[in-house]
Every structure is written in C-alpha cells, then in structure tokens.
Amino acid sequence: MDIRLLEPKEVWNKFADINAVPRPSKKEERIIAFMMDFGKDLGLETFKDEVGNVIIRKEATPGMENRKTVVMQSHLDMVHQKNGDTIFDFDNQGIEMYVEDGWVKAKGTTLGADNGLGVAAIMAVLASKNIEHPAIEALFTIDEETGMTGAKGLKGNVLKGDILLNLDTEEDDEIDIGCAGGIDVTAERSYQTEEVPEATVAYRITVKGLQGGHSGMDIHRGLGNANKLMNRLLFDGFENFGLRIAEIDGGGLRNAIPRESIATIVIDKVHHDAFAFEFNQLATAIKRELKTTEPGLTISAEVTERPENVMELGVQEGIIKAIYAAHNGVYAMSADMEDLVETSNNIARVQIGEGKVLIGNLTRSSVETAKTDLANSLRATYELAGCEVNYSGNYPGWTPNVNSPILEVLKSKYEELFKAKPEVVACHAGLECGILGQNYPEMDMISYGPTIKGAHSPDERANIASVEKFWKFTLEILKSIPEK
Questions:
Q1: Which cofactor is recorded for it (predicted)?
Q2: Is 77 an annotated catalytic residue?
Q3: What fold does the segment set 3-179+397-479 form as a domain?
Q4: What is the pLDDT of residues 205-247, one digit of tens each?
Q5: DSSP of 433-473, one letter per residue?
Q6: Residues 244, 306: contact at Cβ < 8 Å?
Q7: What is the pLDDT of residue 430?
Q8: Phi and psi dihedrals of 144, rounded to 5?
C-alpha cells in the first residue's frame, strides 16, 4: 500500500516528503534547505539560526489570538543504521518504506519515524487551512541524535512561546514530563604491534543478528550487546588458548545498542581443534542464555587469511579485562518513579586495529551526580588499562514538573478523547527539553508522540493506528491552549 494513502494523509504525506531527503546527523544541509523552502513557500516567517535550527512562525487562526503562543518542536536528523546485508547509501538515497500488519517499516534500514513523524505533524499544522490553533512557533532542531548541538546552540532570545510541545516520545499512551541527561565517555590508547608467527591459524569471529535498539528507551530489555558478547568470546579464547587480537570492529552509533561485531584473531595451530570445540560450546551457551530476548543471534568463527600483526600482549590483556569490567546496561533504577531506569551505560563502539584502540560509551542518568559517578567508574576502569579517557557531549536531564499547567491540559484531553488515563512518565532517553529549558526556564514543556518500536535499529516501525490517534490528540491540544 502506498504510504501516502494512509490516514491521516496530511501527516503521512509530509513524512514521505521528508523521508525522500537524506538527513543524517551532522549532515542536515539538505533537510534544512527543504524546511526553509517549505516555510517560505507557505508565505510564513521562516529563518535559520546560527547553528542551523529552522524556525517557522504562523499566526493564530481567527478567535485564537488571545491564547498562549505554542512552540511545536521536533528534530530534523535521524539515526542511520542498516542490516549488514542491506546495500543502501544514506547520504544519497531516500528511505524505502512499506506497510505490513498495521505498521510502516523500512527495507533493511532505520525508518526515521524518530523524529520524522513529529516533524511531519508540525508541517501538517503549518500547511493547514482549517486547523484551529493559537500562534505557532515551529522549532526544527538539528543534530539531536549525536550530541543535541542544535538545542544547545539555540539562543535564549529566539523563541517567544509560552508552552513547548516536544513531539518525540514513542508510546502513544504516555505523556512525558522528564528525561535523562547523558555524557559520552571515550577511551583511547595506542599500542605496538607484534608479528604473527608462522605456526598459527587465523579466525574471523562474527557476532550478529541482535535486535539492537535505542540505548535509552530499550536499555532495560536485557538485549544483547555485540561488543560485550564479542569480548566474552575473546576473553575465553585468550585465557584458555592464548588468543591474539588483530582487529575488532563492533557497534556504531553512540545511542544505538550494538547489533554486530567482527574480530580477526589468531591462535597457535596446536590449539586449533580445542579452540573450535570450546568456542562452539561457549557460543551455544550464550545463545541459550539469550534465546528469549535475542532469537536471531548468530555467533560464528571461520578460518580466514592470516593477518600480519596482532596487538602487543600486555595491552591486549588490559583492554579485554577493561571491557569485561566496564558496566553495560542498567546501573540503577529510580527510587522516585516506578519502573524508570535512573542510570545506565551503553558500550556502543569498540574499534581496534592499526595500533589504535577506541571504546565509545554513552552514559545516561536522570540524576546528574549519578551520571558523573558512573562516568568516573568507567573512566577508572579504562585508565587501569592505560587508556586516555575523555568526556564530551554532556547534556542535562529534564527535571519533572508534576504541577505543569500544560500537563493538566493534556491529561484532561486524553481522558476526554480516549476514555482512559494516560501514563505520566519520565523517560530514560535524551529529550531536548532539558537543554532548551536552560535558556527558556519559564517555558512550560511537555512531550508526547505516536507509538514507535525499535528506534535506532533497522527494526524501527511506526504504528499506523497510533499515528492517527497522535494526530487527533494534537489537534485537540492546539484547540485547548489556555489564554494568555
């Protein structure tokens, strides 16, 4: 079925429009130009700030002039992930979508529903001729997924709105009033290489088929982390057979749970049969452990061409032990909000080769001091292995305000429309509200959105019925904005 025929057509058509435009984080030039043209073609005040955020203003519809001005906000960039066997050029191709069993999906890649559906809904409001709404400031931020630099760069005198609707959450029965902050913890070091002896055999070890997912929203699900699983295999091989590492390439984006890891290793030929037996035993045990959460996991070791060099022995031992010791997954649950992850870490990237080690982590917490504590724990672990550790991309959380006036509006309208109570939550993902609130502390902020599953992975999918529900809710919210 053609995506453009889905209801509500005004939202799905705008989503199809932006999904035709490549929009990776830090390469948003084309989508920025697209949005600038979109606003100007509508005859609306449209401008770009100094970091690349696009702001479009639309006056209130007749009879709504006395209502508070609303900032509708979503981010333009999307996470680019694909399956290992998918051939796709994210820099030049539009996302290929299809409909299956009530969901919109992409062919082997991320869908971009995060946060493209939010962008599309705002565009539909801006383009509308008959939607009742107060004065609107549409804020389209850049680079949310790899550092939130758009939100960080937005100056405090740009927006005039009183209320901010962030359309970037992923369960349609939830209203979000808080989120976690985050910090990138990156460990690096160099090492000397050693020549590979003749009496050795090389293997290419592959861990793949994991679900992956959002390193905040999915971190509690017990999903496999390809970097941790690979390290477990390497640790066992090193302890029992003197395995030596030539290369590792595991994971990718900081905010995606790593789905694949590939390593090239060598062992002495004398251990060939014993290593193969032990490896298969451990691989079977790991797959058995994860059979419920990761049914698609595959682990293999195939003989390959012998590399020229491996890591120096002392550095290899330190790195393997450091990755084993470094925390991955949920670190602490919130004592204040039931079922909310407070603090976590994702070992997102492990890259070893050509004399260099890089280990990338994204640490999150809704408690600033707990975030620092876990980051320091990781730093200490990696420094014991001789790494230099840097912190970057630090952004604050969003402190929940249970007395928010706009929260009361959304709760009452949700109950009125859907005859049920919404879940008022804080999330473990990073939302831009916390950052925007630093320069706009008086702005009343709320976040909601349609149901999206598997964000940041090629399994990302958007529920069609939920998008219709989200759109209906949005229209009712806009009609119910309080007076100034």
A1: Zn(2+); Co(2+)
A2: yes
A3: Aminopeptidase (3.40.630)
A4: 999 999 998 999 899 999 999 999 999 999 999 999 999 999 9
A5: HHHHHHH-TT-EEEE----EESTTSTT-EEEHHHHHHHHHH
A6: no
A7: 82
A8: -65, -40
Q: Are 219 and 344 in contact (CB under 8 A)?
A: yes
Task: State yes or no: pLDDT of 253 exceeds 90.
Answer: no
In the residue annotation, 144 being an active-site residue is answered as yes
Q: Are 343 and 364 in contact (CB under 8 A)?
A: yes
At what angle are helices 226-241 and 272-289 packed, to 10 degrees? 150
CA-nearest of 423, 414, 431 to 474 is 414
Q: In CATH terms, are 3-179+397-479 and 183-395 the same topology?
A: no
| Structural element, H or E, at residue 250 | strand 244-251
**Cα–Cα distance, 352 to 235 (Å, whole number):** 15
Q: What is the rounded (10 degree) CA torsion for 447, 453, 458, 462?
A: -80
Reply yes or no on whether the pLDDT at 338 is more than 90: no
Q: Which pairing describes strands 174-179 and 423-427: parallel, antiparallel, or unpaired? A: parallel
Burial class (CB in 10 A: 0-12, 13-18, 19+), 281: exposed
Q: What predicted TM-score, i.e. pTM, was given to this entire model?
A: 0.77
Tokens of 414: 């949700």
Q: CA–CA distance from 42 to each of 35, 58, 124, 478 (Å)?
A: 11, 10, 11, 20
* Maximum alpha-carbon separation in the chain: 84
| Number of other CB atoms surrounding residue 10 within 10 Å | 17
Other Cβ atoms closer than 10 A to 336: 11
- Kind plus residue range of the DSSP H or E element containing 164: strand 163-166
Tokens representing 360 are 């990338």
Domain boundaries along the sequence of the chain: 3-179+397-479, 183-395
Spatial separation of the C-alpha atoms in residues 125 and 229, rounded to whole Å? 46
Determine the angle formed by the axes of helices 9-19 and 113-127, rounding to 10 degrees.
120
3-state secondary structure of 161: coil
Q: Contact, 414 vs 422, CB < 8 A?
A: yes
Quick check: helix, strand or coil at residue 228?
helix
Give 165-206 pLDDT, tens digit per residue: 999 999 999 999 999 999 999 999 999 999 998 899 999 999
| Rounded to 5°, angle at Cα 349 from 344 and 355 | 135
- DSSP secondary structure string for all residues of 329-352: EEEEE-SSSTT-EEEEEEEEEEEE
Per annotation, catalytic residue among 28, 137, 144, 171:
144
183-395 under CATH 1.10.10.10, yes or no:
no
Euclidean distance between CA atoms 3 and 12, whole angstroms: 7
Q: Which of 28, 77, 260, 444 is an active site residue?
A: 77
